[in-house]
Amino acid sequence: NCEVCTSMKSSILSSISYGVSGGGTISGDVTITGDLTVSGGGSFDYSEVLTGDMKITNTNAGPALEVEQNTSAQYALLIDQNTNASAIFMTAPQASTTNLIDVDTPSTTTAQVLYLRNCNALTSGGILNMTSNSGSTTARNLAIIANNNIASTSATVLKLEQNSPANSFTI
After folding, report:
1. Residue range 141-155: average pLDDT?
2. Are 68 and 60 in contact (CB under 8 A)?
3. Residue 105 above 80 pLDDT?
4. 3-state class of 119 per DSSP?
C-alpha cells in the first residue's frame, strides 16, 4: 500500500464518480462485475451483444418493451434459437379477460398476417395444435374464422389443400 498508489486510485475514482454522477460520457470499454441497476429516464443507443440473462420489470402503465423499426425490409425482432427448447414461451396467469396475443389492425394487403412457413422437417409433429381442457359449461367457440364484409364476394373462409392421398379433413 504505497501512498502514491492510494492517492492515484482516489483521484481516478473521484473523477469517474464526479463525471458519471453529473452526467457525461464514458469512453472505452467498461466491465461491470455484479448487478447493474439503472434508474431514471433516458434513451440508450446500443450496438453490442449482450450475454447472460436479462429481465425487464415494468411497474408503469406503458409497455415493458417496445421495438420500433423504421428501416424498410428488416425484421423488427429476430429470435435466433439454437437449442432444443421453445423460442418463445409466455405465461399470463393474470390475463383472464384479455387477448394473450393481439395483432391490432395490420395494414397487410397481399401477404399473410400470420405465416408459418417451411415446416418441412416435420415427421410425427404438426404445424398447429390448439387444445382446451376447460370443464366450463359456458357456451363458447374454440376457433372462429370469420369474413365479416358482405362485399368480399371472392373471399374463401377456409381452404384445405391436400396433395397426398390421405384425408384432408377428419371428424
Report:
1. 94
2. no
3. yes
4. coil
User: Cell match 395490420: residue?
Assistant: 106
Q: How far apart are CA 24 and CA 18, in angstroms?
A: 9
Distance (Å, whole) CA 26 – CA 34: 19
Show the CA angle centred on residue 18, arms to residues 37 and 29, nearest 5°. 60
**By the 8 A CB rule, do 89 and 83 touch?**
no
CA gap 56, 63 in Å, rounded = 10
Residue 22 DSSP one-character state: T
Nearest to 77 by CA among 91, 90, 66: 66
Distances (CA, A) of 155 to 107, 125, 149: 18, 30, 10
Tell me which residue of 19, 52, 58, 59 sits closest to 36, measured CA to CA: 52
Rounded to whole angstroms, how far apart are CA atoms 132 and 143? 11
Residue 142: CB atoms within 10 Å? 8
Which grid cell sits at 123? 415427421
| Residues 49-76: tens digit of each pLDDT | 777 888 888 888 888 888 888 877 788 8
